[in-house]
Each structure stands twice: as structure tokens, then as C-alpha cells.
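Form 12-C: Joint structure prediction
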Amino acid sequence: MKTKLRVKKDFLISISAILLGLLAGAGLMAVTGNSPLEGFIYLFRGGTMNIERIGNTLATATPLIFTGLSVAFAFKTGLFNIGAAGQMLIGGLCATAIGLTFDWPKAILLTVIAVASLIGGALWAALPGLLKARYNVHEVVATIMMNWIAYWAIYYIIPQHFKGPFLETESQRIPEAASLKVPWLTDLFSGSFINLGFFLAIVFVVIIAFVLEKTTMGYELKAVGYNRDAAEAAGISVNRNIILSMAIAGALAGLGGATFYIGFASNMQIGVLPAQGFDGIAVALLGANAPWGVFTAAIFFGLLHNGKGFMSAMTAIPPEIADTIIATIIYFAATSVLIERNWDKLKKINLENILRRKKRGKLAVKAGGER
Amino acid sequence: MMVDLIYQLFPYAIAFTIPLLITSLGGLFSERSGVINIGLEGLMLMGMFVGAFVISSVEALYPTAAVWIGLLAAAVIVALFALLHAFACVTLNANQVISGIAINMIAGAVTVYLARFFTGSGNVQIIRGMPRITIAYLSDIPILGQLLFTHTYASTWLILLILALATFLLYKTRFGLRLRACGEQPHAADSAGVNVYLMRYMAVLISGACAGLGGATFIVTLSGEFNGTAAGLGFLALAALIFGQWKPWGILGATFFFGFATTVANVSQVIPVLAQIPGIYLKTFPYVVTLLALILSSKSSQAPKAIGEPYDKGKR
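Section 2 - Result
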């Protein structure tokens, strides 16, 4: 059970990590002779200036919500899913392949695509889950290997089967019917990249929150995460839950891949391991592995990523500043012990001060009484 | 035909093996002391950047010495950069996997940021790489002479020398025994008077120096430019470390195996015999065999026992 105090602490850790990340970013801007304040203002304005940019921020955040949920979900079972990038690629490949092959009405096509990318991602992650459960192969190593297998598989499959008309290194554009972009939404946000994927992401935030908090399945998955032996003793099949947890995490990342490749983008590039897979780890850490926390963190990162182009156009600051900030946030989230320790120390000092003041007050009262 | 092919491919395979080997060796030091190093990719990338940047800055002044200055600078600066990982993992008891990922991401962002700042394009090119040399007398040895001692790089022999020294250091000296003890039984090591924190710091520093050297070696021998990515080489080195079962000669075999497979995949388009093997099998091969090796060795894994565990003195 999560107490209020713990939530407050998680929140404080996340805020501290963000502040430290922004501070590191400011340092890097200053070192390279730019004004950090100006940089941050343009970064923020680039993500929120007008309705189109807000739409783009949400669109950039969409795959991050999925990969963040994916990593967070596996974390709940005590598993570390570094393979979200590879699962995204497989989900994206399923989506692209179906989108380019079948000529069905949009509603049917998108449903089939969603299901296929979900299953593709789930299977890609279930294998490391199986290896973990059956052979005790560390899921971190296994998912890294799966990432690169996916990377090279895409590298050869796309040019061979779905080659674009101009470049060897990208697939054909998916047809209108297979795109998650819809005219009314694009118009509503005056030509933004925002697409149905964003709503799908919200639906999945709700579903995952429900599964984790209100179902037996969620309870069992978390029990395995808290204490494997105790869960086993209580009759919960640890192995089954490990595979299940990885499969669900993979399904989320696979869907995230679909929203990226047929929503945000319109084709697949080869030779790129999507950065969203690793950013998802930052999103999960920052969101304290809670579904709505993940949602909020993903929007924040979406803002950073979307604003960086504008910032670099308006100043001399290279756009990689956003990635630097995110990377630093992960580092400080990993070293949250430091933050936690200092926060505890601060609290202790505060508490001592309060106690001392109270004591002094009491003494004063006592002294007053005696007088 | 087949023999000619091997003669042709061999120098490339070795050139590709060497950066992997030294990076993997760095990972070996870190992991043998009990600190997981997923950050090899980032450390290698940092080495590529520092190497390319330093060489491109000094090669006008010192045309021949520039590559060596670059290699040295990469080793030193990346060792310092690896301190970040050591600080998180050893001093702060942070999650080693997350810290490693942060290292990868910080390296990826900061190097490109700086490259863009300095060159505008984000790429850093060097004009002169490491020259290929033929070693006198040794190259006259039948077969081996042509395979190993012609068209070779001086850096290759330097790194093989480092491998031999590292093996000696790890298995024949007090330092090596202590370092390995920290990865197997840190509490026992501590009670025998070993400073576990210090040993782990040194191991991570060494791993940074090795990976930095690996990245810079890749620049001076194979690529000639920093372009913002290590393209998974660091992860390949990590796979080799596991496939080689955390042993120096094991990783030599594993990296050569991976180096040869990658070279074959890279040239398969132009060589008719190899063009029949689809590239997808050759490129995914290192990762698939690593997964298989993990499955096969699951019963008798040679992984350091205390790997990934932050050392807590209080638990002794």
C-alpha cells in the first residue's frame, strides 16, 4: 500500500531530479556561451506557443506515454524492461506491414493494426520473460540483445519488402487509411502531428491503472515484484507472472511503436533504434511507476523534445540540450538515494527545530507558571 | 578462392575486433569488481568524440603523433567520465543498470551537443588515421605472416599487449585477486582488509579508460569520423563479455568471432560466395548466440556472484 507520505516523497524526488537536470542543462548552455534563461524561455515557448505546437507536444509525448507505461509496468513486477526500443520497432513493423499490404476501410484497418502491433510487441518481450522464468537469464541482458536483433531485422526487412520509392533507408509512406492521423484532429490543432494515438494512450493509462490497482492479476504481479519468495509461498506462480508482465510491457511498447511510425511519422527509417524506448525509462522513473505519473512525465518530456527545435532556431544552442536534460534527470533519478538522504536530513533538522521550539515554549510556559 | 577470401577479410576482421576487445576488457574489469557496466556504449561514444576532436585539433601541428595523442586523451578523459558511473554505483548505491543507461544517454547527448557547438554539423572528421604497417621478418612467416603481420595497425598490437597485461594483472597479482574478490564476496574481501569501495572505483575507472581507447581506436582505424553514434558497438562488446564468460581469453575469442561475423556481413554484398547468406542472419548472429550462450550456461554461469549488488558495509 502506498501511503500519502511515500507519494509526497516520490513527488519531491521527481521534482528534485527535474531541477537538477535543468540545472545541468543550464550549466551546459552557460559553458558554451549561451544564456540559459533565454534558452529555457524558447524551449518552453517552442512547446506551447500556439495550438499547433501544443498538439505537437502531445503527439511527441504519445509514444513516450506507452514506453513509460511499459517500463513502469515491468518495474512493478521487479523486472527491468530495457527492450522497449526493440518492441517499438517490432510493433511499428507489424503496423507498417499491414498498413502497406491491405486495402481495408480505415476503422477495420486501424483495429487490425493495433491488435497486430500489440501482439508483436508482446511476443518480442515475452521471449526474454520466458528466458528469465525458465533459465534465469537476466532480463536486462536479454532485452538488450532483443533490441539489436530487432534493429538488424528491420534493417534488412524494410528495404527488402517495403522499400520506399526514393531512398533505400526508409519504407514507403503508409496510405491515408492506415494513418492514425485524422483530418478533424489535424484541423482542430491547425495542422499538428497529433493523432488518435494520444487518445489510445489515455485509454491505456486508465486500463493499466485499473489492472494494477483493482484486479487480482495486478495484485499478483505486484506481489511478485515486492517479494518473489513470499509470492511463491502464497501460491502465486512467479514464473507465469514474470512472462505475463513482460508480455504486457511489450504489448504497450509495441502499441507505442505503432503510434510513432503510423501516427507521428508516416514511414519507417532503418538504422535507428527509437530513442523513445530509452526515454521511457526516464518517464517511468520520473512518474514513480504510477500510470498518471507516467502520463505527466511523458507530457513534460514531449514538451522538451518539441521545444528544442524552436530553441535551437532562435538561439545558438544545439537541440541536444533537451536530451542532455533528460539524461541528467535519469542519472539523478537513479541516484535518488542522495536526494532522499538529504531530504530526510532536512526533515530531521526541521523536526528537531520544531521540537526544540516546542520544548523551549513548554519551558517558557513552565517558567511562566512558576513565576 | 576460399583461402584468398580469408586473406582478404582477415585484416578487416581484426581491425573490427580490436575496439570491441578493448571495450569488452574494460567491461570485464568493472563487472569482475561487481559493478554492472551497461554504459559501455556511452563510454565508447565519448571515446570516439574525444579521440576525433583531439586529433582534428592537433593534427596540423603534429601530423604523425596526433593519433597517439588522441588515443591517450580519449583513455584519460573517458576514465574521468566513468567516475560519474562509479560515484552513482559505489558511493550512492544507485541502481547500476539505470546509472549505466544514464551514462549512455548523457554521452549520446553531450557529445553531439559539443560536436555541433564546435563544428556546426555534429560530425568531427580526422584527416589522417592510423597508418597500416607491415612488420619486418614476422610477415615472412608462412600463412600467419600474411594473416597477422601485414597491413596491420600498431594500435592492434598495443591493445593485444594490454590484454596480456590485464590478464596478468587480474590473475597473477594481489590487485587482481582483490578486485575479483570484490565481485564475488565483497564482505569477505572487506573483512580481509580490502577497501571494496576503492577497488570498485578503480575498476570502473579502468573500464572507462579501456572503452575510451576502444572508441578512439575505432575512429583512427575504421571510421575516420565521429558521427554521433557508436551504432551498438558498446552493446556488442557487452555481449562479447557475457559470451566470453567474463574471462580475458574468452572475450578475445568472442570479440574475434563477432568481429569476423560483422566483417563478413559488411562485405557480403560484393563477394559472390557470401552474398548467398542473407545479411540479416550474419548481423543478428552475435546477439542470438549470446542469448543461446546465456541459456546454455544458466546452470553453470561464470558471472561474478556479487554483480549488481551495491556494497553495504553494514550488512557484513
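Section 3 - Comments
The CA atoms of residues 118 and 177 of chain A lie 19 Å apart. Residues 336-370 of chain A form the longest helix (35 residues).
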